């Protein structure tokens, strides 16, 4: 299966390094950013969720009605709406988009952030609720007859929807987390399992934990794996590292000045000691070292307190492309990337990194197809590690995000 790329569908131009220049929902910027992704080789964009941020569902509908090809990953927290309502919302959005929707279900790893919208369940209770919620939504999407539900968290009677997704049998379900409870829930229910960028060794361990959870749930096909990074690229290695250090300096300065907003675009709240396992892992990795593998750099994660997708890949487009291919060879199918200058970085990554990765993935796929039948069969197994391919390399123009 070809590699896929996920970007961000921010509703304003603010980031960890720069204050936003306008309203929280700037529809012109939202469309401009989404269009930049569509025009530069990205497959889909994430509409994130935060307790105080603009509602991602109507923002996603706005973009779906304006663009023709870009797919949408809509983040959703089960605590904010009943599953019967949510299933209809998602089905309607899949109709609006012509079948371009996937839904990312967020259990919530911060009690304070969840409490802002009245969610007072414990973390384990939230995971149990999310599993029940996803099962209900899937059933509503695929059931034409009225049914009752009597669960631990939801009860309803004689429900049937009159709006169904374009995609058959249903849209994909995305899920993330790094705790045993997350592996169990996502391994059982997710089509796509999302991880934050960690060193290759730790990523391989997490992939195996997800696959083991899927096997324990009786699945024969494990979830596809997605891994997220913050790429920092420039025409030379020296310029890329200068840019990386400037980026961390800007993050630290904004934090010192108290200008980082409490309601982050990815739904993560500033916290000295994060409660979620994923952020705890990022901090521990950063404390153990700054550089890992080919290009992974942890000071960006340390500077944000492990807030969400925050580990960087630093280097030239060739270096970053090779680093991403290392993860592809582990079994990662979807690569999520978001720069600190959202618009220019999306354009540069699309122009200079995505084509290199796609070219090398195509070579790897062709090599596997040409391999002897036994080797091909072995490589095609769900737990197989993909074989390495040749080094990438191609001429480059000046990167947009380096200028100025």
Give unreliable regions as ranges.
261-271, 388-397
Following the backbone from N to C, one meets helices and strands in this order, namely: EHEHEHEHHEEEHEHEHHEEHEHEHHH
The coarse silhouette is: globular
Q: What distance lies between the first and last C-alpha atoms, to the nearest angstrom?
A: 39 Å
- What topology, given as strand order, has the largest sheet? 1-2-3-4-7-8-9-13
Helix content: 40-55%
Rg from C-alpha positions? 21 Å
**Mean pLDDT rating:** 90
Got a strand count? 13
Largest beta-sheet details:
8 strands, parallel, barrel
Structural class: alpha/beta
Strand content: 15-25%
Count of helical regions? 14
What does this structure look like?
This protein has helices at about 25-40, 55-65, 85-95, 110-115, 125-140, 180-190, 200-215, 235-255, 275-290, 300-305, 315-330, 340-350, 355-370, 375-380, and strands at about 5-10, 45, 70-75, 100-105, 145-150, 155-160, 170-175, 190-195, 225-235, 290, 295, 310-315, 335. With about 400 residues, the chain is an alpha/beta fold. It has an eight-stranded parallel barrel, surrounded by eight helices. Strands 5-6 form a two-stranded antiparallel sheet. Helix 1 (about 25-40) links the parallel strand 1 and strand 2. The relative contact order is 0.13. Mean pLDDT is about 90; it is low at about 260-270 and about 390-395.
Summarize the structure.
With 404 residues, the protein is of the alpha/beta class. It has helices spanning 27-39, 56-66, 83-97, 111-115, 123-142, 180-189, 200-216, 237-256, 277-288, 299-303, 317-330, 342-352, 354-370, 373-379; strands at 4-8, 44-47, 71-76, 101-105, 147-150, 155-159, 172-176, 192-196, 224-233, 291-292, 296-297, 312-315, 334-337.
